[in-house]
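Practice problem. Given the sequence and the SMILES for flavin-adenine dinucleotide, write out the predicted structure.
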Amino acid sequence: MELTAGFEHFVRTDEPLAKYTWLKLGGSAEYFAEPTTIEELASVVKRCRENDIPCRVLGGGSNLLVSDDGVPGMVIHLSHPVFSGIEVEGNRVTVGGGAKLSHVVSTSVGAGLAGLEALAGIPGTVGGALHGNAGANGVDIGQRTVEAKVMTRTGEVQTRTASDLQFTYRQSSLDELVILSAVFELDSADSQELTRRMQKFWIVQKASQPGGSDAVGYMFFDPPGLSASSVIEQSGLKGTKVGGAEICGEHANFVIASPEATANDVRRLAELVQSRVKEVSGMDLKCQLTIW
Ligand SMILES: Cc1cc2nc3c(=O)[nH]c(=O)nc-3n(C[C@H](O)[C@H](O)[C@H](O)COP(=O)(O)OP(=O)(O)OC[C@H]3O[C@@H](n4cnc5c(N)ncnc54)[C@H](O)[C@@H]3O)c2cc1C
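Answer key:
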């Protein structure tokens, strides 16, 4: 059976991926699915499994470097509203994996619930944030996660409760194919005071990122006790360029991709930074970007 048979209304072929990523780079997905129900999601995952087709999930694309040659197999995008609900009940907020993290933060703050406001200004979706335990200002998303629903590579929906969940620095035990939803347990607080705190975090976060409409990527994990940005700066790498990819002059852990850049330029720039940092300080910087 043709892989897309019966799925024509939500699966496309040869979909250019650059527009879905913050780096605005890379080739096309062989198949691209935007399911409109959980049943459609399960069917496409099962069909791929039966046909040995690799599957990946795209969130907000803020941590992705897509290869210039594109991506074989299926890329699933949880863009339909069915995957991005946000529900507040008492101190718990239940959110879909496709919801924007920024919406979840502002909804929680508006409901007078504290615990996520320090994450204001981190781009991407809840699924992407949980996958990589995103964090800022000493807080990470895992600290408030008490439950998650996932879809396995066989298309089965499972629930992970607090005792199954492990979060460490930019890592989580949620490594199933799809993070469908999560529950955050938060603290009651004054909404106006929280709003002020969130705004401060947002300003600090934005001040630590390149501004404007540049195509950007956040390159390396911080080494223990240090910031990747200062390590790169101290290695004299600010402003270093490979092709159209350049280390940001103001915030050295960001790469800026010009319209002429290729994904290969970014990959080669990351390798150059890694080898120069190793030479200067003996440190191994680990790439934060997920490379497809
Ligand atoms: C300007 C800028 C600032 C940033 N600042 C920070 C920061 O302060 N702190 C920080 O931690 N990170 C930061 N990042 C990195 C990035 O924003 C985070 O890693 C973010 O959580 C990625 O989410 P996403 O939805 O964009 O994921 P994507 O980039 O789309 O995907 C990243 C990974 O998550 C997986 N994934 C995405 N959604 C799902 C899902 N529903 N189910 C299963 N897997 C999924 C993908 O398959 C992929 O492996 C920054 C990036 C940029 C560009």
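Check your answer against the key. The pocket of flavin-adenine dinucleotide is lined by residues 22, 56-64, 78, 97, 122-125, 127-129, 131-132, 134-136, 178-179, 209, 216-218, 290 (CB under 6 Å).
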